[in-house]
Amino acid sequence: MTTVITIDGPSGAGKGTICKLVAQQTGFALLDSGAIYRLTALACLNQQVDVDDEAAVKTVAEALNIKFEVSEDKVLAILDGADASKKIREEQVGMTASKIAAYPAVRAALLQRQRDFSQPPGLVADGRDMGTVVFPQAEVKIFLTASAQERAKRRVKQLEEAGQKADYALILKDIEARDHADSTRASAPLKPAEDAVVLDSTALSIQQVLDHVMNLVEKAKQS
């Protein structure tokens, strides 16, 4: 039997950190669906594909050569045999990923690849439509969110810790634009599943969020 835990929500809400910690505590496999779209975006940029051409992007998605590897406490995203974990976190890649994620043909091409990550004893799936589209029968569904301002602050801190310059106002504008694009797209818009638990992390620590999520996981095991 395979238990699936989905954690959806907007960029910067803390999904990646929480999913990694939950996977470590449960021993479940981990799927970073956002990374799949970012890897597709990076592949398009590397190949100089016109990202306004849905058919061309679909072709890239279908031929994508990717895998995820766990290295110490990190999950590495591998594209064409090379570690692309840092590259896919760049702002240009993120905005491109948000754009191509709105294409129905691209989402269809990547759907089965995501479902194939489900394996015993379980899977922790991080994304935007994990509980609504990819794993609608998941035993635990969480929608993790935070205010746009808080998410912008977190992104600034992340970039500065990586030695990069960060413009709070510009990052906040990008986050708000991405939220709008993700929540209003025709295909699989960003929204909580009807049976998801909505958790606002704005004023919570990582440990507090983790405790809440693990409590939901334990309740699901007992039901």
Tell me the CATH superfamily: P-loop containing nucleotide triphosphate hydrolases
Order of SSEs, N→C? EHEHHEEEHHEHEHHEH
Broad structural category? alpha/beta
Instruction: Indicate the proportion of strand residues.
Output: 15-25%
Task: Enumerate how many helices there are, as a single number.
Answer: 9
Strand order of the largest sheet: 2-6-1-7-8
Helix content range of the residues, please? 40-55%
CATH C-level class: Alpha Beta
The second-level CATH architecture is 3-Layer(aba) Sandwich
Q: Find the count of extended strands (DSSP E, 2+ residues).
A: 8
Total discrete domains:
1
Overall outline = globular
The span between the termini is: 15 Å
* CA-based gyration radius: 17 Å
- Average pLDDT for all residues: 91
Quick one: biggest sheet?
A: 5 strands, parallel
User: What do we call the CATH topology?
Assistant: Rossmann fold
Low-confidence stretches at least 5 residues in length (pLDDT < 50)? none
